[in-house]
Amino acid sequence: FFPDPVKIEVFNEPLGSSLEEYKIEIEELKQDMLDATNSASQIREDIQDLKHRFGTISPSSTCDSANCRQSVFSKEFYLFPCHHKFHLSCLAKDIAHTLSDKKRNELDYLIKEHKRAVQAANAAVASLNGPGSKSHHALHDSMRSIDAILGKSCPNCSSTMIEMIHERFDEGISGFDSDGGDDDGWTISK
């Protein structure tokens, strides 16, 4: 590529400075990779710690769904790190409108399967056949799948609520005329 009389000494300084720049960039990349690896390890540890975290609930605690307010102990429930508590069925109803049609159908199916698994596990225990490992595994699998959808974040105070800020506030409220006017349901009485 070069004519014969060209000496390599001419390229010595530019090559050296380029190699020095690449060396610095490689060191920076190594440090970035080390930082990313340490962050990933810390996140894994935090996730493991969360699996063993617990919360206490008072006997008078109620479901935090606006449509329920029954004792939280009356049905299966979720307790979020923010201390909001929801019955499984109430939580499913509360977040259903935030899910895609496909996810909503999947959740409905999983909840039906979970109910069947609970009934099968109860039947196995009632008939003194032991815990019924098959029904126990089905129950565990269905709960894990439901957790993946429902247990991601609290619908009352997480980013889910923030993402819904663009939705109409008046939707579904009785006494509101959706064409922009209001009717007697919104009048202030003296």
Short description:
It holds the Pfam family VPS18_RING_C. Keywords: Coiled coil, Metal-binding, Zinc, Zinc-finger. With 190 residues, the chain is mainly alpha-helical.
Could you describe the 3D structure shown?
Keywords: Coiled coil, Metal-binding, Zinc, Zinc-finger. Residues 19-46 form a coiled coil. Residues 66-106 form the Pep3/Vps18 RING C-terminal domain. It comes from Percolomonas cosmopolitus. This protein is mainly alpha-helical and 190 residues long. It has five helices and two strands. The protein has a two-stranded antiparallel sheet. It is elongated, with a radius of gyration of 29 Å. It starts with 8 loop residues before the first helix and ends in a 27-residue tail after the last helix.
